[in-house]
Write a structure and sequence with these properties.
By secondary structure, the chain is α/β, with parallel strands linked by helices. It contains seven helices and 14 strands. Helix content is 23%, strand content 26%.
Length: 257
């Protein structure tokens, strides 16, 4: 059965609500897809980052507000009123063109302008999977929901720097040797580790695991076993595992609770 991500997360029980995306493998795409779902429910939404990301395309967010600009809060308020969705960052890095993030403590003040604040709180250099360094991820303490993201296109590939961001940390967390094959067991260890999937998550936050890019395989149902392995592992902090991917014009989501 297909579920909307906003339905899986039951976002309407929180308002204002802060949702932070960490990990790798399609965080930005998933964040903006959720933003569009929230817009369809006629709520206001701010998308932002506490690290850095590429500025949104016009289809992801029509307007961008920089907190380095004079009277930026007034500008944000006006744009939210007009467009209902604004992407917010500190400034554009002229060296790499990326949108630099706002401070984690600034997230709380955004709640007076928006019903939902969606935050990208981790970097992954465009790779499908990672383990965090000691300073990562940057999760704002008001986060009601934290989603740890892994790209399923890492499966069956060697644990090497072409696939894994922070490869040495990844090997430490999962117990793999370099160039050993990444499998279901590897991903279960990663997402349930206090040094990776559960790292820096506030005690009050709900935790979801999202496996993206299931559309790179012939059948998303094969990942129900992976989701069940995680949910039966005895970690009661994880509320659900979502398997998601792009199929035709939309995103298909499978959920295991």
């Amino acid at each position: 059965m297909n579920y909307a991500l906003s339905e899986i997360l039951q976002v309407q029980k929180y308002r204002p609500c802060v949702i932070t995306f960490v990990g790798a493998g399609g965080k930005t795409s998933l964040m903006f897809d959720l933003a569009h779902e929230i817009l369809s429910l006629n709520y206001r939404v701010i998308t932002t980052t506490t690290t850095k990301m590429f500025p949104p395309s016009e289809t992801q967010a029509k307007v961008l507000q920089l907190s380095s600009e004079p009277d930026w809060e007034k500008g944000l308020e006006q744009k939210i009123r007009e467009y209902l969705h604004v992407c917010l960052g500190r400034k554009i890095d002229l060296l790499n063109g990326k949108l630099l993030g706002i401070a984690s403590e600034e997230i709380r003040l955004l709640e007076k302008y928006s019903d939902y604040i969606l935050v990208e709180g981790d970097g992954s250099a465009g790779l499908p999977v990672k383990a965090p360094e000691k300073w990562e991820p940057v999760i704002p303490w008001p986060s009601n929901i934290v989603i740890y993201v892994v790209g399923l296109d890492c499966l069956g590939k060697p644990a090497a720097s072409k696939t894994v961001h922070r490869i040495q940390k990844f090997l430490e967390v999962t117990g793999l040797l370099e160039n050993e094959i990444i499998d279901f067991s590897t991903l279960k260890k990663l997402v349930t580790s206090k040094y990776a999937g559960l790292k820096n998550i506030p005690e009050s936050s709900e935790i979801y695991i999202a496996f993206t890019k299931s559309d790179t395989f012939s059948d998303a149902e094969i990942f129900r076993k992976l989701a069940s392995m995680i949910m039966s592992g005895g970690n009661n902090r994880i509320r659900a595992v979502v398997v998601t991917g792009k199929y035709g014009p939309g995103r298909i989501n499978l959920v295991v609770r």
